[in-house]
């Protein structure tokens, strides 16, 4: 019989229970045991959901208090040396992730970057040639034992050895692949322990097989997996996020008992996989979308699998395309969505039910006449025919925009002169990325308004008071370009989703971004329109409160697209141009309101880059052009900023230059040397602000470290083009952390101005 399993499950809790428990523990308001009690209850609830839905395995090893890659570093004794403080596992994990523990230990936090092309962030393993590994299986084995106490058929999950090393970074320029012989024996030792615990199947994730792998990495798979064979475990080699293409034969020929392929991302893999699978291996097909939230067309999926079912029989497994980490918990709680959108959704709970229903239909055709099967088919048809989805005029404007190459009227060199004449900014101008702390007072204000305890006027008066407070703090600190602080915004994408037609916002659609940081992606279900300006009155009010320049803040088209759940019935590029059109209108409205510095954030530009290089150019063409469409309607002396963070930019620097923003701010505090090396080989000619301190750590930055980043930057950036700013927005920090950090940052900028003045006088 065909089986169904999931590759992983969300872990923050349907009501973000783990988030609140983590933040309480970090603040010193609860004990470690209280944190673990919450974590274990969420983990248990995940397993119970899988069992109650009818999954054939429960999946264990996918849970993490902060990040599963960080867990892997701990599992193999490979945390950074600076984080190995004491014997407590949680303190070590949090020291590596956050740079601080409740016990008062501080350190430099590890670098974070995006997990492939998702909006999830992982902690990057740090590698040196002399590294040694040590198996520390206690956390994983505890989870396996707890799972087996619930249900004996447990499928364990571990990140594979090659993917672990590949996703790391070398601190000494050594080849990380040279560490593989040291790591493989520990995997073998771990396999023996898992077998002794009663584990039959191990899901060994090797997602790098979906990338353009260097030949030495691809060639390392076969000898590595021959080393790991004959361990008594059934190994399911798991890939996701893309098709394997030239690595398909490699994966299918490895000495493992099963291979998982993502057929949502690359359905064309199925036919060649069936030709090459061999007579004994299990083929697990990821046919339930683990990254988007639309109901599955089970009729179409079943038809596509009939040949595989006939050929493989019980060796055909059904699965989610990837871990369900990337989707919310349960769409049943969404009762207030417009235009019938709720019936079209499948969150993690519904995806379990879809997978089981599809499995049953493949095993027994009588299921096809059931009410449940028909209800699924009806929901698919209702979405296809809904009049709320398609608007001809919106489609036409986007199509017209896509056909044109958008550019500013003047080149940057000429714009910069006009902008300086208007703005009169000092050398090394200081600013922030946009948001200021979302305090308990702001959250309480929002909660009271939603619950009807405050009128709209009272709510907005409260927001204005918060904006005025943010402005006064910035003036006192001495920042040169101010922001209004975004007190009115719950999230940089959700806020815009709430104000656009064709976009819905869920009540409980939380997903994890990193650690305790959760986001609620809006749902783009139809053609997009802007009924009215979205940010203008807040920026206009803020500017009226200060004589300094106020920066308008928008989220760019690609980032809204990438950080939303996007309709799957048209190309992403078409949706991007629709978003760019409404942002273009907003940018022009801000300019008319007197806001002459406008930031349009695109942190997801690099994240959206396809995993295969052959598809890069096509993506970058429409992604960059849609950004330019959103900003090119303003005068030459209106200064356009953009912001990017937590991604590798070296391979898309020409595209970033092609965006032609007047100023770009970047995350560099955790990866300054890498960005500066990139700029040395590929100079960037417009204004640039390399982030001088890490806002994801609660530590107050050292002035010396910030000054070092700026001095190094002057080797590759002209002084008149260099800005001074933090890595990212400050909404997750507390004012007690923000104020001294920004004071130190401004002092550093003043010191650097004096250094340049002295040099010029000499």
From TrEMBL:
Binding site for L-methionine: 433-435, 486, 601
Residues annotated as the enzyme's active site: 696 (proton donor)
Keyword Glycoprotein annotated: no
Highest taxon, organism lineage: Bacteria
Coiled coil: none
Residues annotated as domain Cobalamin-independent methionine synthase MetE C-terminal/archaeal: 428-749
Broadest EC class assigned to this enzyme: transferase
CDD domains reported in the protein's UniProt record: CIMS_C_terminal_like (cd03311), CIMS_N_terminal_like (cd03312)
Signal sequence, renumbered to the chain: none
Cofactors (names): Zn(2+)
Residues noted as binding 5-methyltetrahydropteroyltri-L-glutamate in the record, renumbered to the chain: 16-19, 114, 119, 517-518, 563, 607
Source species of the chain: Thalassolituus pacificus
EC number(s) on file: 2.1.1.14
Designated name of the protein: 5-methyltetrahydropteroyltriglutamate--homocysteine methyltransferase
Entry function: Catalyzes the transfer of a methyl group from 5-methyltetrahydrofolate to homocysteine resulting in methionine formation.
Cobalamin-independent methionine synthase MetE N-terminal domain location: 5-311
Catalytic reaction equation(s): 5-methyltetrahydropteroyltri-L-glutamate + L-homocysteine = tetrahydropteroyltri-L-glutamate + L-methionine
Pathway assignment: Amino-acid biosynthesis; L-methionine biosynthesis via de novo pathway; L-methionine from L-homocysteine (MetE route): step 1/1
InterPro entries the record matches: Cbl-indep_Met_Synth_N, Cobalamin-indep_Met_synthase, Met_Synth_C/arc, UROD/MetE-like_sf
Chain sites annotated for binding Zn(2+): 643, 645, 667, 728
Protein family per UniProt: Belongs to the vitamin-B12 independent methionine synthase family.
């Amino acid at each position: 019989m065909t089986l169904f399993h999931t590759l992983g499950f969300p872990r923050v809790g349907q009501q973000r229970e783990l988030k609140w428990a983590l933040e309480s523990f970090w603040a010193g308001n609860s004990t470690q045991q209280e944190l673990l009690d919450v974590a274990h209850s969420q983990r248990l609830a995940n397993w119970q959901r899988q069992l109650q839905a009818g999954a054939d395995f429960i999946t264990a090893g996918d849970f993490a208090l902060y990040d599963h890659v960080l867990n892997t570093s701990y599992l193999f004794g490979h945390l950074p040396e600076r984080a190995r403080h004491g014997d407590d596992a949680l303190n070590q994990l949090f020291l590596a992730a956050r740079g601080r523990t409740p016990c008062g230990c501080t350190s430099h936090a590890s670098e974070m970057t995006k997990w492939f092309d998702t909006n999830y962030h992982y902690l990057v393993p740090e590698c040196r040639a002399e590294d040694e590994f040590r198996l520390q299986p206690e956390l994983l084995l505890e989870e396996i034992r707890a799972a087996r106490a619930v249900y004996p058929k447990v499928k364990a999950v571990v990140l594979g050895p090659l993917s672990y090393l590949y996703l790391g970074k070398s601190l000494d320029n050594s080849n990380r692949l040279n560490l593989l012989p040291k790591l493989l024996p520990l995997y073998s030792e771990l396999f023996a322990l898992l077998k002794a615990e009663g584990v039959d199947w191990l899901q060994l994730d090797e997602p790098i097989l979906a990338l353009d792998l260097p030949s030495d990495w691809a060639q390392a798979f076969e000898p590595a997996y021959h080393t790991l064979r004959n361990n008594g475990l059934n190994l399911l080699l798991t890939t996701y996020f893309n098709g394997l293409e030239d690595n398909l034969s490699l994966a299918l020929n490895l000495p493992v008992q099963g291979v998982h392929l993502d057929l949502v991302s690359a359905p064309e893999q199925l036919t060649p996989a069936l030709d090459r699978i061999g007579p004994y291996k299990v083929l697990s097909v990821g046919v339930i979308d683990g990254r988007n939230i639309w109901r599955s067309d089970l009729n179409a999926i079943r038809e596509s699998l009939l040949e595989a079912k006939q050929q493989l029989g019980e060796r055909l497994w059904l699965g989610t395309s990837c871990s369900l980490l990337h989707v919310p918990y349960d769409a049943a709680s969404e009762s207030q969505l417009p235009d019938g959108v709720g019936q079209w959704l499948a969150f993690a709970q519904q995806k379990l039910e879809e997978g089981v229903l599809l499995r049953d239909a493949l095993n027994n055709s009588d299921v096809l006449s059931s009410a449940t099967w028909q209800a699924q088919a009806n929901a698919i048809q209702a979405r296809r025919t809904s009049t709320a989805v398609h608007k001809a005029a919106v489609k036409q404007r986007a199509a017209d925009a896509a056909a044109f190459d958008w550019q500013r009227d003047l080149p940057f060199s000429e714009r910069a002169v006009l902008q300086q004449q208007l703005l009169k900014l000092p050398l090394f101008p200081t600013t922030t990325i946009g948001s200021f702390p979302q305090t308990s007072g702001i959250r309480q204000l929002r909660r009271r308004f939603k619950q009807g305890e405050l009128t709209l006027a009272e709510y907005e008066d409260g927001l204005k008071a918060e904006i005025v407070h943010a402005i006064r703090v910035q003036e006192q600190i001495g920042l040169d370009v101010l922001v209004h602080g975004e007190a009115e915004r719950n999230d940089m994408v959700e806020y815009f989703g709430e104000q656009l037609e064709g976009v819905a916002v869920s009540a409980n659609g939380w997903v994890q971004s990193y650690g305790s940081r959760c986001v609620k992606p809006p749902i783009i279900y139809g053609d997009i329109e802007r009924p009215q300006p979205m940010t203008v009155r807040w920026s206009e009010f803020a500017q009226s409160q200060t004589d300094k320049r106020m920066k308008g803040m928008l989220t760019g088209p690609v980032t809204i697209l990438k950080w939303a759940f996007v309709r799957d019935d048209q190309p992403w590029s078409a949706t991007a141009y629709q978003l760019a059109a409404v942002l273009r209108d907003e940018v022009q409205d801000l300019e008319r309101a007197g806001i002459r510095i406008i930031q349009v954030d695109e942190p997801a530009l690099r994240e959206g880059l396809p995993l295969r290089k052959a598809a890069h150019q096509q993506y970058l063409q429409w992604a960059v052009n849609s950004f330019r469409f959103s900003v090119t309607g303003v005068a030459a002396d209106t200064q356009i900023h953009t912001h990017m963070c937590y991604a590798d930019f070296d391979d898309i620097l020409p595209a970033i230059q092609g965006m032609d923003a007047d100023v770009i701010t970047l995350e560099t505090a955790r990866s300054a040397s890498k960005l500066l090396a990139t700029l040395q080989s590929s100079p960037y000619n417009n204004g640039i602000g390399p982030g001088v301190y890490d806002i994801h750590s609660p530590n107050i930055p050292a002035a010396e470290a910030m000054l070092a980043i700026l001095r190094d930057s002057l080797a590759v950036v002209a002084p008149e083009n260099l800005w001074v700013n933090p890595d990212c927005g400050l909404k997750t920090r507390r004012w007690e952390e923000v104020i001294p950090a920004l004071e130190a940052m401004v002092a550093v900028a003043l010191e650097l101005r004096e250094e340049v003045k002295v040099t010029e006088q000499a």
